[in-house]
């Protein structure tokens, strides 16, 4: 059973920084993709950033240059460094793990609230 545990959310003023962490446990294939998605009130959940176990990363246009995703494969942990935060970044942030061996599967964390005050 794969589990994801997130941490690091909170309240911060505009222009500030936060760092999110997500640790995965269980039987996880060596090739996988981990990432962060977010959902603001009244909006659909959307991609923030993803990173493959080989290191390739993709970002939503709205966070490029401000957010940095990284991972520690030995710890099955993904991080999201969020700088220059804006009020529009306020959302619940969810960690996701996608695996492909033996079958394609995806797992979600419970979500962590990020609130950016103006």
Protein described:
The chain starts with a strand and ends with a strand. The chain is 0% helix and 56% strand. The mean pLDDT is 95. It is mainly β and 118 residues long. It has strands at 3-7, 10-13, 18-25, 32-39, 46-52, 57-59, 67-72, 77-82, 91-99, 105-108, 112-117. The strands form two sheets. Strands 2, 4, 5, 6, 9, 10 and 11 form a seven-stranded mixed β-sheet that branches. Strands 1-3-8-7 form a four-stranded antiparallel β-sheet, with no helix packed on it. The protein contains no helices and eleven strands.
Keywords:
globular, 118 residues, 4-stranded antiparallel sheet, mainly beta
Task: Summarize the entry for a quick read.
By secondary structure, this protein is mainly beta. The protein has no helices and eleven strands.
The percentage helix is under 10%
Count, helices? 0
The shape, in one word, is globular
Number of strands: 11
Pick out the low-confidence regions.
none
The termini sit apart by 40 Å
**Integer-rounded radius of gyration:** 14 Å
Q: DSSP strand (E) fraction?
A: over 45%
Q: Give the SSE order as H and E letters.
A: EEEEEEEEEEE
Largest sheet: 7 strands, mixed
State mean pLDDT (0 to 100 scale).
95
- Counting helices, strands and paired strands, the structural category is mainly beta
């Amino acid at each position: 059973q794969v589990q994801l545990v997130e941490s690091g959310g909170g309240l911060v003023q505009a222009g500030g920084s936060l760092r999110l962490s997500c640790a995965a446990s269980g039987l996880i294939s060596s090739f996988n993709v981990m990432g962060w998605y977010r959902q603001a009130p009244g909006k659909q959940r959307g991609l923030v950033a993803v990173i493959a176990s080989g290191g390739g990363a993709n970002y939503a246009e709205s966070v490029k240059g401000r957010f940095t995703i990284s991972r520690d494969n030995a710890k099955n942990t993904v991080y999201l460094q969020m700088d220059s935060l804006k009020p529009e970044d306020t959302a619940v942030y969810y960690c996701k793990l996608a695996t492909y061996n033996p079958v394609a599967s995806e797992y979600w964390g419970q979500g962590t609230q990020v609130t950016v005050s103006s």
